[in-house]
Amino acid sequence: MTGRVRGFLKGWCAVTETPSSGISAPYVICVGTTLEDTAGIAEAVDRRAVVLVAPDTDTARGLLREQPPASRRSESADIIVHGHLRVDATAREVTWAGVNIELSAREFDLMATLASDAGRVWTFEELMSRIWKTRYLGDADPVVSAVKRLRKRLAVAVAELRVVSVRGVGFRLVVPD
């Protein structure tokens, strides 16, 4: 960690003096907090610090590293392979057993996110943050609509690959072995 930790309380820490992160002001990283908790923290700091939200500790660690995670990624890290599924982030292509699956930009972003940790349940909040780059305010419709479109595209290409709903929580990608 390149910053100086000032405090820690229930999943958040205030960090100062982290010039290598590109953030010159003190900031608070909320890890795995609810929307209400994050809003409360933002209100409590009253513009005296930047409030960042990280869905998990790995993302939070990436925010504290000397270089942004994207700049350290190797070319092979931009390709995700699970069995017959291949997601190439650089070329923005998804293939199943060598056959290209045509996806829109939003569908690709959703597929790449789900495939980055296949089998993991991605919450609505995490998907909104990662794909739409906005906070989840309780309306899951954009995520649900995008998943519906992605499912239609996948059904045309391959029956085995599925995006499964976890009611009230989010979605996960099921890739057969």
Helix content: 25-40%
End-to-end C-alpha gap? 38 Å
Number of strands: 11
Number of discrete domains:
2
Strand order of the largest sheet: 1-2-3-4
Question: If you compute it from the alpha carbons, what radius of gyration comes out, rounded to the nearest whole angstrom?
Answer: 18 Å
Rounded mean pLDDT is 77
Strand content: 25-35%
Largest sheet: 4 strands, mixed
Question: What is the structure about, briefly put?
Answer:
It comes from Haloactinopolyspora alba. This protein is α+β, with helices and mostly antiparallel strands.
Account of the protein in words:
GO terms for molecular function: DNA binding. It holds the Pfam family Trans_reg_C. Residues 77-175 form the OmpR/PhoB-type domain. Keywords: DNA-binding. The chain has helices at 35-45, 57-64, 69-72, 105-116, 124-132, 141-157; strands at residues 4-9, 12-16, 27-31, 50-54, 79-82, 85-88, 93-96, 99-101, 122-123, 162-166, 170-174. By secondary structure, the protein is α+β, with helices and mostly antiparallel strands. It has 2 domains: 4-71, no CATH class; 75-174, Winged helix-like DNA-binding domain superfamily/Winged helix DNA-binding domain (Arc Repressor Mutant, subunit A, Orthogonal Bundle), CATH 1.10.10.10. The strands form 3 sheets. A 4-stranded mixed beta sheet has the order 1-2-3-4. Strands 5-6-7-8 form a 4-stranded antiparallel beta sheet, with helices on one face. A hairpin with a 4-residue loop joins β6 and β7. The longest helix has 17 residues, at 141-157. The chain is elongated and about 50 Å long. The relative contact order is 0.11.
